[in-house]
Amino acid sequence: LQVLCRYQHIWNIDLRFRPAFLGGIMQATGNKPPAMLPKRGEYILKDIKRMAKYYQVPVRMSADDFQRILRSSTLQAMRFITAIDMTQPQYLEPLSREFWIRFWSQHEDISQPENILAAAGQAGLSSEVAQKLLEMISTPAVKNRLRETTEEAMKYGAFGMPAVVAHFNGEPHLFFGSDRLELLGSVIGE
């Protein structure tokens, strides 16, 4: 997310955020988190640290964080982002980035209403608008929209996150994982 936001101006791409629920994707595709395999978990931990340094992105990870991540729910945050997408799409990028920093760097529980409101405020939303959006997250409209965008991601072939769909020369191209950015650049001629 952070690198794509950085590259959108370098590559001159139209970056569009589409909220999708990872838990729904994992369940529907029968996928399992890679950290559930001990050796893969060890490798991923090292790889995340290397990528954080390479891309200069503030990810803080330890072996204990895998359990934190598996126990965490991002559903409320994804519904809040969906409500933003439906009503105030200009805040999608700053809010997504704020949730990302809070989850991956500050290890904050982004499912809690007070943390959602704090992230919204940091992203530039007024407290009144943020509170109204927080009230929207339990509505059928928001739930259905998140379900639709999650299903759309799976139609493109998503089986986990991050999933990036690049529409280039009239064709969609799915890229999974943050280590595929160079391949994305190659496909779009950058």
TrEMBL record:
Taxonomic source organism: Nyctibius bracteatus
EC number: 2.5.1.18
Keywords from the named record: Transferase
Family according to the record: Belongs to the GST superfamily. Kappa family.
Domain DSBA-like thioredoxin: 2-187
GO biological process: glutathione metabolic process
PANTHER family reported for this sequence: GLUTATHIONE S-TRANSFERASE KAPPA, GLUTATHIONE S-TRANSFERASE KAPPA 1
Pfam families for the chain: DSBA (PF01323)
First and last residue of the signal peptide: none
Catalysis: reaction(s): RX + glutathione = an S-substituted glutathione + a halide anion + H(+)
UniProt GO cellular component terms: mitochondrion; peroxisome
Transmembrane stretches, start-end: none
Family annotation (InterPro entries): DSBA-like_thioredoxin_dom, GST_Kappa/NadH, HCCAis_GSTk, Thioredoxin-like_sf
Keyword Transferase applies: yes
GO molecular function annotations of the record: glutathione peroxidase activity; glutathione transferase activity
Protein name: Glutathione S-transferase kappa 1
Top-level lineage group: Eukaryota
Top-level enzyme category: transferase
Keyword RNA-binding: no
